[in-house]
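Re: weekly structure request thread

Next one in the queue (108 aa):
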Amino acid sequence: MNVSSKAVVPTSHASRYLQQLCKHWAHNFPVAFTTGTRTVTFSRNTRGADWPGDAILELQVSESGRECRLTASSEELLSALKGTVERHLDRFASREAALPSAWVDGQS
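Done, posted below.
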């Protein structure tokens, strides 16, 4: 079973934050760089976890900010990774107010 969610995070620094996030996560996870899209694969057994399958985060810069598409193997993993993405983005965007991440489940 795969579940998914999508969020658009409004910021004028989307490109910079996307690069920082991917560079940071590349130390522990596979990160693919293609034209316009960055893909982070969170392995199902990362840091001792035992999820049913891997999770995929796709990041793109859009006119309205940074688009996030998250696909996970369970509702619990999806929820946990939404929080992880939000915390990391807020860390890199610390000069701005907390950035809103309105996730819409069932979106891919």
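The beta strands are 3-9, 31-34, 37-42, 55-62, 65-72, 104-105. The chain is about 30% helix and 30% strand.
Next request, please.
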